[in-house]
Design a protein that fits this description.
Blueprint: H1 2-23, E1 37-43, H2 47-56, E2 64-67, H3 134-144, E3 145-147, E4 164-168, H4 174-184, E5 199-202, E6 204-205, E7 207-208, E8 211-212, H5 215-220, E9 229-232, E10 236-243, E11 246-254, E12 257-269, H6 272-282, E13 285-286, H7 288-292, E14 300-301, E15 312-319, H8 328-332, H9 334-343, E16 353-359, E17 371-376, H10 389-392, E18 403-410, E19 418-420, E20 431-433, H11 440-457, H12 460-463, H13 485-495, E21 497-498, E22 530-532, H14 547-562, H15 568-576
Parallel strand pairs: 1-2, 1-12, 2-9, 3-4, 12-22, 13-14
Antiparallel strand pairs: 4-6, 5-16, 7-8, 10-11, 11-12, 15-18, 15-21, 16-17, 17-18, 19-20
Helix pairs in contact: 2-14, 3-14, 3-15, 11-13
This protein binds flavin-adenine dinucleotide.
Organism: Mya arenaria (Soft-shell clam)
Keywords: FAD, Flavoprotein
Family: Belongs to the GMC oxidoreductase family.
């Protein structure tokens, strides 16, 4: 306990200093007086909402209001320090959503699985989603990007000068073992955001000058000098005001007071894959049966909250006999702190997620990958693995030792989940039922992904550092034969976790597809002046992490809403270099 307390206090101190140096100069976000009417009201200042607010307010004629239920990102300085990301969990900056308990039962099936066609990391090429193919969306990815990796600066798949810095995580040398191990297995080292996704690479991360590159920091704050952009934090939106099937405003609660603000042009939901469907349902847009049970008048019956997809992962903890990774004492050392404060570099500037790979399972029939690896350059100590502590005894050490965790991720699970209202109280969390492993195929695939992970850890590259995976011998699975399918299944059932990539709860699709909520311009079907712009509109979860695709969606939506084509030049350049 003492170790962790010391660690936390050091991190907080660094955070405070960091905040003083980099952030305190920025002004507070919240405006004192909210106007009665704006042109656009955006709900949710997350990855998408901050981009939209910044882009829509570029036009001085647009009066924009951005409402956010949480506080400012500067309230918790650890949010900006890459290595301190974990210390933000379970704080007031976290919604603390919990999913329903995992039900594994092979004789019940909620629904047959949906379309098999999947997205690429940078595409959403889904049938019925015209305008969202790879060539359509690549310019929007590029618009946001500021590539800071020298050997990629001239790549047609990258761009310089956008708000979102992209760097390679290079602090901990274990990344090289990951890439070399991949080569031993026959994979190339790739820029997985470039021409070829399949292969191994150093992780590309959004860190600028040592600070995590959130859209609040990179898009919103630089726009705050604009008089036409108002932001209100700690404002919990309860409903969209709908009059005769036209969205006319938003109701929110701040400081225990309900306020209603009108939107002259549009209301845009960017409250995320849980928040957006919840607000829609509270406003009468959603599955009629669920709304009727809480006496919410149905305005439009749509499959809001259905079709939820998420990435799920397993962990293989490994130990090693060299100090090539991240440990608490290394990160908290005086030299590390000094380096960070002076130059924004060193162990504190890294997420620890040093390696990323995309591969195909034996069942994969498309040219896109269905398994992802992440190499985390640390073996958590027991105390940090609180979420599953009752099982983790033996899996993680009590004190920091040299090690790592290989996470094997299912990119396209067949199981679909859903979320629905638990009551008509906007402060009541909805039911979140991801249905992980409801389809047996997902379990087979997860076992295969772990076997492929074990193969990687058995390459010469990892053997050279004495890699051991015997922490998988956890007491809770001791009734099975070590590394048998049953053993891996037991590990998966006890330790598999979300990668926090829920999507598709307000799916985009063609107007006549009854399984979708918004059209290809992200307008809610059957309602005027209401759009959804966030991860919830993805037709399927992407073949990679979801943050950059969400930012792309916001970039594209901003152009749609403004009726401009801000990426015409980028698109033409891409055509010339094709
Ligand atoms: C712990 C964690 C780690 C992650 N790591 C990665 C990663 O390494 N790489 C990656 O690509 N992706 C990562 N993701 C996923 C990524 O953050 C999401 O895909 C992305 O943020 C989705 O953007 P969004 O705009 O849809 O929603 P969000 O970013 O969640 O934004 C929604 C916003 O709406 C606000 N809101 C919700 N309800 C209301 C309401 N009623 N009133 C007002 N405001 C409301 C929320 O507070 C929030 O600020 C991670 C997610 C989590 C949770």
């Amino acid at each position: 306990m003492e170790l962790t307390l010391t660690r936390i206090s050091v991190i907080i101190a660094i955070g405070a200093l960091f905040a003083y140096k980099y952030i305190a100069k920025n002004t507070k976000l919240t405006v004192e007086n909210v106007n009665s009417t704006y042109d656009y009201i955006i709900i949710g200042a997350g990855s998408a909402g901050c981009v939209l607010a910044a882009r829509l307010s570029e036009d001085p004629n647009n009066r924009v209001l951005l409402l956010e239920a949480g506080g400012e990102e500067t309230d918790n300085a650890n949010i900006s320090i890459p290595a301190a990301a974990l210390s933000v969990w379970n704080t007031s900056s976290d919604w603390h959503y919990a999913t329903e308990k995992l039900r594994i039962c092979t004789n019940w099936r909620r629904k047959p699985s949906l379309l098999a066609k999947r997205q690429r990391n940078r595409t959403s090429g889904e049938a019925g989603c015209d305008g969202w193919g790879y060539d359509d969306v690549l310019p929007c990815f590029l618009k946001s990007e500021d590539i800071r990796i020298d050997d990629l600066k001239n790549s047609r798949f990258h761009n310089s000068g956008g708000p979102l810095a992209v760097i390679k995580d290079t602090v901990f040398p274990i990344w090289k073992r990951f890439v070399d191990g991949g080569k031993e297995l026959g994979y190339d080292e790739v820029d997985y955001n470039g021409a070829e996704q399949i292969g191994f690479g150093r992780s590309q991360v959004n860190v600028r000058d040592g600070a995590r590159g959130s859209t609040a920091a990179q898009f919103l704050r630089p726009s705050m000098g604009r008089s036409n952009l108002h932001v209100v934090v700690n404002a919990h939106v309860t409903t969209v005001v709908i009059d005769n099937k036209v969205a006319t405003g938003v109701a929110f609660i701040k400081d225990n007071r309900k306020q209603i603000v009108s939107a002259g042009r549009e209301v845009i939901l960017s409250a995320g894959a849980i928040g957006s469907p919840q607000i829609l349902m509270l406003s009468g847009i959603g599955p009629g049966q669920n709304l009727n049970s809480f006496n919410i008048p149905v305005v439009v019956d749509l499959p809001v909250g259905q079709n939820m997809e998420d990435h799920i992962c397993s962990f293989i903890p490994g130990t090693m006999n060299t100090s090539e990774g991240f440990t608490g004492p290394k990160v908290e050392s005086l030299s590390s702190v000094g380096r960070y404060l002076m130059f924004g570099t060193g162990p504190l500037s890294t997420t620890g997620l040093v390696g990323t790979a995309f591969i195909k399972s034996s069942k994969c029939k498309t040219k896109y990958p269905d398994i992802q690896f992440h190499l985390l350059a640390t073996l958590f100590i027991q105390e940090l693995a609180k979420y599953s502590q009752k099982y983790t005894k033996g899996l993680f050490p009590d004190e920091w030792i040299d090690g790592f965790a290989l996470s094997t991720i299912l990119l396209h699970p067949k199981s679909k989940g859903f979320m629905e209202l638990k009551s008509n109280d906007p402060f009541d969390y909805p039911i979140i039922e991801p249905n992980y492993f409801e389809q047996e195929e997902d379990m087979h695939m997860m076992i295969e992904s772990m076997r492929k992970g074990l193969e990687l850890l058995n390459t010469q590259s990892f053997r050279e550092i004495g890699t051991q995976v015997d922490r998988l011998k956890v007491p809770v699975c001791s009734h099975t034969t070590y590394l048998s399918d049953e053993h891996l299944k037991c590990l998966i059932l006890h330790f598999a976790a979300t990668v926090y990539h829920p999507t598709s709860t307000c799916r985009m699709g063609s107007l006549n597809d009854s399984n979708t909520v918004v059209d290809t311009e992200l307008r809610v079907k059957g309602i005027k002046n209401l759009r959804v712009v966030d991860a919830s509109v993805m037709p399927h979860v992407t073949s990679g992490n979801t943050n950059a695709p969400t930012i792309m969606i916001a970039e594209k939506a901003a152009d749609m809403i403004r009726g401009i084509d801000s990426v015409a030049k980028v698109r033409n350049k891409l055509k010339q270099t094709a």
